[in-house]
């Protein structure tokens, strides 16, 4: 294993609003996608691929939460800003990659 540091970047659009649980979700996704059991090929760890999956999942979950809170007309309501995790199950399992990571 290399001890050399790497710096990666992903450009993606922000989604308006403030949401409850985004930091916890991001940390959990990163741990899950960097686990040897979830990295495709196991022997060839891909930080860029893991980061892309985290961003893709976060974008889907936050957008779904934003859409649901706008429909309810309550983007300022704390309960309406709680992440729609159950409704996002498919995106959590198989996130649609739209934004690519690149080395800086």
Automatic annotation (TrEMBL):
**Single GO BP term:** pyridoxal 5'-phosphate salvage
**What family, per the record?**
Belongs to the pyridoxine kinase family.
Q: Which UniProt keywords apply?
A: ATP-binding, Kinase, Nucleotide-binding, Transferase
Q: Which GO terms describe its cellular component?
A: cytosol
> What is this protein called in UniProt?
pyridoxal kinase
Alphabetical list of PANTHER family matching this protein? PYRIDOXAL KINASE (PTHR10534)
Q: What is its EC number?
A: 2.7.1.35
MF terms from GO for this chain are: ATP binding; pyridoxal kinase activity
Q: Which Gene3D superfamilies match?
A: 3.40.1190.20
